[in-house]
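Thread: quick sanity check before group meeting

JM: Hey all, I'm pulling together slides for Thursday and realized we never actually wrote out the predicted structure for the chain we discussed last week. Dropping the sequence here so it's in one place. If anyone has concerns about the input, flag it before I start.
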Amino acid sequence: MSAPISCDIRETNRSLTWLEKINGPWHKQSLWIYTLIVLAHWAEHLAQTAQIYLLGWKVPESRGVLGLWYPWLVKSESLHYAYAFVMLVAFWILRKGFNGRSYMWWMVAFWIQFWHHIEHALLQAQAIFQHNLFGSPVPISIAQIVIPRVELHLFYNTAVTIPMVIAMFHHMFPLPGEEAHQGCNCAWHPAGAVA
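JM (edit): ok, ran it. Output follows.
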């Protein structure tokens, strides 16, 4: 007599590596956690933008929500670099859960985030070595030469978020002939299903 199906699934899941689980049976949950992190980051940027443009606060006093209680945290380049790095790593780790068009858009977001990470690495290096580029009184990134920091990072986050959302959409709603990743249950309907 064969073992129940649920035991087979549990046995199969035990034989998968952590990375295979993240991109297989745990992919949906992993993407939800990732989405919550992205939304929390967006909430901080939007709060800072509202403080500047709606409340008329000066940029140094506009620190988002966390910065109201922990101003040193938001002023440190370490926090911003850590977030950029975590995003980059998450993009890379979760990429194997995507397929077809969703994979293409996910990788577009990855490469934009890669550049965003380089910009934050430059800022972090200046903070560590106490030597700012271009004679600036504060750490400055390459694109920051022409675009102010608040607006620049709103742009970067938007440029990363748009292809990421498109990737997730194509992943959840694969087109006929395109399968969602076979190891996950992210698709809201089977590939090729008639609506």
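AS: nice. The helical segments are 5-15, 18-22, 27-53, 66-69, 71-75, 77-94, 100-129, 149-172. The chain has a mean pLDDT of 85.
JM: adding both to the slides.
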